[in-house]
Amino acid sequence: xxxxxxxxxxxxxxxxxxxxxxxxxxxxxxxxxxxxxxxxxxxxxxxxxxxxxxxxxxxxxxxxxxxxxxxxxxxxxxxxxxxxxxxxxxxxxxxxxxxxxxxxxxxxxxxxxxxxxxxxxxxxxxxxxxxxxxxxxxxxxxxxxxxxxxxxxxxxxxxxxxxxxxxxxxxxxxxxxxxxxxxxxxxxxxxxxxxxxxxxxxxxxxxxxxxxxxxxxxx
Length: 219
Description:
eight-stranded mixed sheet
């Protein structure tokens, strides 16, 4: 019963559409979710904003990150990876973080910020086990291959993979990418999305039917 009540509390507190079957979630109070988000299993999310319809699978860790709408985050991703200083004598946090509760009181105040804000655009798919360095921007529509380590910005609609991640190709040609970015379809209301859901299977058709309607007001 306590397990069920805890799950209900998390769903109610953060407005989540659903939670996976396991328990062990770490969702900080300074995190916000837009409607219809899903978390598929135990995950850690702190200092972040998660856009509508985005789902996050088991084992993922997201810190100080703005995640767009309709993103697909596979299991065991790390987004907003902290950085230790490389130009200090030691890379251990005891020499740059003031955390008396940990027994780290060698410095009187923090000397280095480990995290910088990360941005993930809308309609981004991040494959299983991918790692995204803090401070990076991932453009709308990008795909991050499983196991990739992203150390620099990723352009919109690029597919990247490897360690460190490199551009493999783009999902669409430059003109199509420009039209999709102009459409900002992920900001449309639910009625608009339902009307055009079938068109999503054909990028040329989607662009054709929406190009004349780009001036309609997004929500």
